[in-house]
Specification:
Blueprint lengths: L2 H43 L46 E2 L6 H11 L4 E5 L9 E5 L4 E4 L8 H4 L2 H13 L5 H17 L3 H14 L5 H13 L3 H14 L4 H14 L2 H11 L14 E3 L5 E3 L7 E7 L4 H17 L4 E7 L4 H10 L5 E4 L7 H5 L7 E5 L5 E3 L4 H12 L1
Parallel strand pairs: 7-8, 8-9
Antiparallel strand pairs: 1-2, 2-3, 3-4, 5-6, 7-10, 10-11
Length: 416
């Protein structure tokens, strides 16, 4: 780049950054105003509104308050999830009728720090979700706030105290409390309180059902945090004896071997559960399509690169859950010969563009607005999502389910 190009590039970035900061500040003001309106509604009705649209016009006269300033795609406001049935609203209300029971139970465990209203339109910031809590405070958190509860309480110590209090005042419920036990294990380690970390593992062992695969996989994650690898292997062996063909158990074996550097064993377990033997090792047939920006794209264009051909859609929870991992691998290996081609099965182009922008997904996307009837879906006989195909530099299919640590390790090996 010339000096003028560098100057222009830096100027644009600074302007963009300032614009994003203002959007965040304005969004925070919107959330605080929504909080005041909910408080007034609660005072009059002794209950929370069913939806945010119930606040208008009596409690919230300004319609723009319900529109995040960062939600600008095509001039429309589109909430990603939990969409209000009456109006287009940027913000996600967590206490609507479908969620009310589960959120009430979470509130008993976590207290009033949990999110009441959320905004996901700031994916470019660290901890890219803005939240209004039940105590009407605004804070940033991960999309899955349960994974890092110190965000909602402010400090690690406050999170430990709140989570311990929640456990002591409730009966074990795996769906609600698995996050708490794993978080406490990590937080105690973060504070250097290793005895308490071991104690929480012992407590967890005493309450989990013996026939629960999921709970034992959570236990394995906690043991790994304490580097108790012999116990990890022991629990996995016991699970494999009881559930020899279980996908999650075999996949966990693969993850263990990836982490320990046993690549051949890791691949052996990976291929047992994650790949179609009729396809692996064979060339992926070329295709020609049009990307989201109207440009032609073909697999042949990527010959010489390692490619992840990722079939996905926004409505698929597992797809969204995997995106940060894909983004991390893309950012790490893009300059070393790795690339991603997204094949979106979404119908709503506006929603798709907004999601890509907010989550910083810079790789090309193929979009046909035909959903699961799209030409590439039919061509490759895709039946479930996500379906991430990993293809080597010569166009040979390496894996039909390259996710998590397997994606990173396989890409690392292929670009070397």
């Amino acid at each position: 780049m010339t000096s003028n190009e560098i100057y222009t590039h830096n100027l644009y970035n600074n302007i963009q950054l300032e614009h994003e900061r203002k959007n965040i500040d304005d969004c925070i003001e919107n959330l605080l105003a929504i909080g005041k309106a909910i408080q007034a509604y609660h005072h009059d009705h002794d209950d929370f509104p069913e939806w945010l649209s119930n606040l208008q016009p009596n409690y919230l006269s300004d319609k723009q308050i319900l529109v995040c300033p960062a939600d600008e795609m095509c001039g429309e406001t589109v909430a990603f999830f939990n969409a209000d049935p009456k109006k287009q609203i940027s913000y996600e209300y967590q206490f609507h009728p479908k969620y009310r029971e589960i959120k009430s139970a979470e509130r008993q465990l976590y207290g009033d720090a949990i999110p009441l209203v959320r905004c996901r339109h700031h994916g470019y910031i660290e901890n890219g979700c803005l939240n209004l809590s039940f105590s009407f405070k605004v804070y940033r958190s991960l999309q899955i706030w349960e994974s890092q509860p110190e965000d909602i309480y402010g400090t690690t110590e406050a999170a430990v105290d709140a989570l311990e209090n929640g456990l002591q005042n409730s009966v074990f419920n795996a769906d609600l409390q698995n996050h708490i036990y794993t978080a406490l294990s990590r937080l105690y380690m973060k504070l250097g309180r290793e005895k308490e970390a071991d104690s929480i593992i012992t407590r967890y062992k005493s309450v989990i059902p013996k026939d629960s695969i999921w709970c034992h996989l959570v236990l394995i994650s906690m043991l790994e945090l304490r580097h108790r690898h012999d116990e990890v292997f022991s629990v996995l062996k016991e699970l494999q004896q009881r559930f020899p063909d279980n996908y999650r158990v075999l996949n966990r074996f693969a993850e263990m071997h990836w982490n320990q550097g046993n690549f051949e064993l890791a691949k052996e377990y990976h291929y047992k559960v994650n790949s179609d033997p009729d396809l692996i090792g064979k060339p992926v047939s070329n295709f020609s399509a049009t990307d989201l920006d109207g440009n032609g794209i073909s697999l042949q264009d990527y010959r010489g690169k390692v490619v992840l051909l990722n079939f996905w859609e926004i409505g698929c929870g597992f797809c969204r859950e995997e995106m940060p991992n894909i983004k991390k691998v893309y950012d790490t290996y893009q300059g070393k010969g790795f690339d991603v081609i997204g094949v979106s099965l979404d119908i709503d182009e506006v929603l798709l563009r907004n999601y890509l922008k907010e989550n910083g997904m810079r790789w090309r996307q193929i979009y046909s607005d035909k959903g699961d009837e799209g030409p590439l879906v039919k061509k490759f006989k895709i039946t479930s999502l996500p379906t991430p195909w990993l293809i080597d530099r010569n166009g040979i299919l390496i894996s039909t389910d390259a996710r998590g640590i397997a994606l990173e390790k396989l890409v690392e090996e292929l670009v070397a």
